[in-house]
Amino acid sequence: MRTPLDPDMFDPVCPSGLSPIRIGDKWAGMIVRCLEHGPRRFSELRVPLRGVTAKALTKSLRTLERDGLVHRASHPGPGRRVEYALTPLGHSLLAPMAAACAWAQEHWEELLDAREASPHG
């Protein structure tokens, strides 16, 4: 049995939308992180991504699948289940994402200052 995802793995006080570096849509980077340690069911992904609607999560997963980053596996039988897992291409995205997160953490105050000073804030 695999370890459940931490419901607080994404800090709601720390808006990922502030980072100017995006992987796919708003949820894609967080989905990739959720799949980092192995396959997950849709309902498991909803735990740490509690702010996402089912429709938005489905759309993000389909886009990640289309782009070759995520594989969707349907397991037949009673209680048919579907799991999502990173492909090798998806796993190759983890290191660049870690670098982008480290950069954003290092420049967080500057990003906040720029956002607050912008007339487009």
Biggest β-sheet: strands ordered side by side in the sheet: 1-3-2
Number of helices: 6
Q: What about the largest sheet?
A: 3 strands, antiparallel
Tell me the name of the CATH class: Mainly Alpha
Portion in beta strands: 5-15%
Separation, N- and C-terminal Cα atoms? 45 Å
The percent of residues in helical segments reads 40-55%
Tally of separate domains: 1
Instruction: Count every beta strand, where a strand is a DSSP E run of 2 or more residues.
Output: 3
CATH architecture: Orthogonal Bundle
SSE topology string: HEHHEEHHH
Provide the CATH topology. Answer: Arc Repressor Mutant, subunit A
Mean pLDDT: 86
Question: CATH superfamily, called what?
Answer: Winged helix-like DNA-binding domain superfamily/Winged helix DNA-binding domain
Can you tell me the residue ranges where pLDDT is under 50 for at least 5 consecutive residues?
none
Outline type:
elongated
Structural class: alpha+beta
Radius of gyration: 16 Å
Organism: Actinoplanes sandaracinus
Domain HTH hxlR-type: 14-112
Protein name: Helix-turn-helix domain-containing protein
Pfam families: HxlR (PF01638)
